[in-house]
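We were asked to recover a plausible sequence for a given structure. The inputs and outputs are reproduced exactly as logged, with field labels preserved.

PROBLEM: sequence recovery
POSITIONS: 536
GIVEN STRUCTURE:
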């Protein structure tokens, strides 16, 4: 389609990025040489500077080489956010390996599938997660398990509250390698690896895509660097910025915007292992964080936090959100609270995060932005694949330097997802006359009630408009008459009381009857993740 979004392009920014032909990890060494004492990571008060981070990843890269890791070998990270994740991630890249970042919430079957499918021979994990690794390692190609603990890097006296789940004593397993022992044993002498940045893989980023078991999206070094640089340029991030890292590093949004981007620019990364609203706002206030990438459920929790007035969040100069569209009421409250706009964006694992972002200077409420650097997009009819006019809802297709090479060992899935160079996202969207993208819903999450399509976001927006509602998620549940019925999961704001029938009546006054929830369940919490599908 015509690139109508260029008329909304941020002033002073190039339409495409001109990247150097070098991998991301080389920029870490640049900062270590130029500013070795600059803080790279602040972890509950433990400070790790660029010189230390580079040296430790060098030592670990040497250890991986000793274990036989060669160019193209896959290495799994089964870790939550912690300095060890960053050190191991950059060590794998330095050793020529391919990072396979596993979700630490995985059960044994899910972890086993990813290890088997990727062919990983080495895995890094936390001590409390190791029993899952032990349960699945037989029958896989795993030869070495490297185990660490939160306490390997937590300070003796943390300056931020440590989540109760992180306080267990460190456990050592004799059949494994200790992370800190490897660092002590090996010299900072990583192997020399020649990298073809446009062909060689940096990541296998597993995603369920639209159907079936999780598949490994093959991400090159060039794609990884492209969106890391793009994040920094779009947000105007520099070495003077302090970036808050809350989103999980195993997921592309946290990996690109929270972990890699501050390291690329030479900024400081304030890192949290577990999400807790009070700890988040304390961290922003204490460390004077200036840049933060978050997701919708976190944005809602922050603006509704009862004691939010005790904390100064106006140090934040750039704030972005993804995962799901942010309700307009939350965007307005955010601007009042923080003093700056919350900029929405859109991305997917197959494109190593962002393909669309709102311009910082002129975000459009309700939109998830315009195509990012070098991105082309189309909206097509789901059935015919024909391009649709502006304003009509259809599947979003994207093309650009960040899009994956394909799915690991899945040629048929690759052919289905990548057609003619276009990545089929499985998301229903529309584009307005200014080139802004509006997310409607996930194609596979669309609720089919009778003969009608119901998009959960539309219903959620109506629920958020009620003053008693703090958080909401809408799902489809089996129904004998309608096939699927609309159900809402709701968290009420503190001190608020309302009956389900009252909320349903509120919805009936705003949207058609077939879209209204047939039932409402009040809950104490909802998942603070990117996954929209909830267990009922």
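RECOVERED SEQUENCE:
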């Amino acid at each position: 389609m015509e690139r109508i979004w260029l008329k909304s392009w941020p002033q002073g920014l190039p339409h495409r990025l001109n990247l150097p032909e070098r991998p991301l990890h080389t920029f870490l060494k640049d900062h270590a040489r130029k500013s070795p004492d600059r803080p790279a990571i602040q972890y509950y008060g433990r400070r790790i500077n660029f010189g230390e981070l580079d040296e430790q990843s060098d030592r670990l890269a040497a250890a991986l080489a000793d274990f036989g890791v060669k160019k193209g070998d896959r290495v799994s990270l089964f870790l939550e956010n912690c300095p060890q994740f960053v050190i191991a991630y950059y060590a794998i890249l330095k050793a020529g390996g391919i990072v396979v970042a596993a979700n630490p919430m995985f059960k044994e079957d899910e972890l086993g599938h990813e290890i088997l499918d990727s062919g990983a021979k080495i895995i890094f994990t936390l001590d409390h997660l190791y029993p899952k690794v032990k349960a699945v390692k037989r029958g896989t190609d795993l030869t070495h398990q490297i185990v660490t603990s939160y306490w390997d890097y937590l300070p003796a006296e943390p300056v931020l509250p440590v989540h109760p789940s992180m306080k267990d004593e460190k456990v050592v397993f004799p059949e494994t390698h200790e992370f800190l022992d490897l660092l002590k044993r090996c010299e900072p002498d990583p192997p020399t690896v020649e990298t073809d940045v446009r062909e060689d893989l940096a990541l296998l980023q597993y995603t369920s895509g639209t159907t079936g078991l999780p598949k490994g999206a093959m991400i090159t070094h060039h794609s990884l660097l492209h969106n890391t640089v793009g994040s920094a340029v779009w947000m105007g991030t520099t070495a003077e910025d302090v970036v808050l890292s809350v989103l999980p590093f195993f997921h592309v949004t946290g990996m690109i915007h929270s972990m890699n981007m501050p390291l690329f620019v030479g900024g400081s990364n304030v890192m949290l292992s577990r999400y807790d609203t009070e700890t988040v706002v304390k961290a922003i206030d204490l460390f004077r964080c200036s840049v933060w990438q978050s997701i919708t459920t976190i944005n809602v929790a922050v603006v509704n936090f009862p004691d939010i007035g005790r904390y100064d969040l106006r140090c934040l100069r750039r704030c972005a959100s993804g995962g799901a569209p942010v309700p307009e009421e939350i965007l307005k409250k955010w601007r009042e609270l923080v003093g700056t706009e919350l900029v929405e964006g859109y991305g997917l694992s197959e494109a190593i995060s962002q393909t669309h972002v709102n311009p910082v200077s002129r975000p459009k409420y309700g939109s998830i932005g315009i195509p990012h650097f070098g991105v082309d997009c189309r909206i097509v009819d789901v059935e015919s694949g024909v391009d649709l006019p502006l304003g009509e809802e259809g599947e979003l297709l994207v093309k650009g330097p960040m899009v994956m090479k394909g799915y690991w060992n899945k040629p048929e899935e690759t052919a289905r997802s990548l057609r003619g160079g276009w990545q089929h996202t499985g998301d229903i969207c529309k584009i307005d006359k200014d080139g802004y993208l509006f997310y409607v819903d996930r194609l596979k999450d669309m609720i089919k009630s009778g003969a009608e399509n119901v998009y959960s976001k539309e219903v959620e927006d109506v629920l958020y408009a009620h003053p008693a509602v703090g958080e909401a998620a809408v799902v489809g549940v089996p129904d004998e008459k309608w096939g699927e019925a609309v159900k809402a999961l709701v968290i009420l704001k503190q001190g608020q009381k309302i009956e389900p029938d009252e909320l349903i009546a509120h919805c009936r006054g705003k949207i058609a009857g077939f879209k209204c929830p047939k039932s409402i369940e009040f809950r104490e919490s909802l998942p603070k993740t990117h996954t929209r599908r909830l267990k009922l």
